[in-house]
Every structure is written in C-alpha cells, then in structure tokens.
C-alpha cells in the first residue's frame, strides 16, 4: 500500500465510510494520471509563459504606471 492509498483509506475511516479496494485502486490510478498531467502542464507553462508575461509583470511591478 502506498502513501496515497493510505491517505484515502484513513480519510474514509475518519468519515466513517468504507471504500472498496477496487475503487481505491481506480482513484489512485486517476490521481497519479492527473498528477502526471499537471507536471506536464507546469513544464509547458514554464516554457511558454515567459514569452507573454513581461508586459504583465512590468505592470504588476509598477502599478502606478500605465
């Protein structure tokens, strides 16, 4: 059992509910997939956003101008 499974089962126990093992496995798989997709998105944003952000950053840093 990994940390995610343990946390799901502990949360369920604290709430007084039972989650079938098959559902826990599906949920863990979905969470791992989502985490992987978020990591990819974060990498994409970190590569692409600097091209668009300088004008926004300059306005944030100097809000009294423009």
Task: Give the % helix.
Answer: over 70%
The H/E string reads: HHH
Estimate nothing, just give the exact number of structural domains: 1
Q: What is the distance, rounded to the nearest whole angstrom, between the alpha carbons of the first and last residues? A: 56 Å
Rough outline: elongated
Q: Kindly state the mean pLDDT as a whole number?
A: 80
Helix-strand makeup class: mainly alpha
What order do the helices and strands come in, and which of them pair?
Blueprint: H1 3-15, H2 21-48, H3 54-61
Could you characterize what this model shows?
The protein has 66 residues and is mostly helical. It has one domain (3-61). The chain is built from three helices and no strands.
Which structural traits does this protein have?
66 residues, mainly alpha, single chain, 0% strand
Describe the structure in brief.
Helix content is 74%, strand content 0%.
């Amino acid at each position: 059992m990994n940390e995610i499974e343990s946390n799901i089962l502990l949360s369920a126990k604290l709430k007084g509910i039972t989650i079938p093992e098959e559902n826990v496995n599906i949920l863990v798989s979905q969470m791992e997939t989502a985490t992987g997709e978020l990591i990819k998105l974060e990498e994409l944003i970190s590569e692409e956003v600097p091209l668009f952000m300088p004008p926004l950053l300059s306005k944030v840093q100097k809000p009294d101008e423009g």
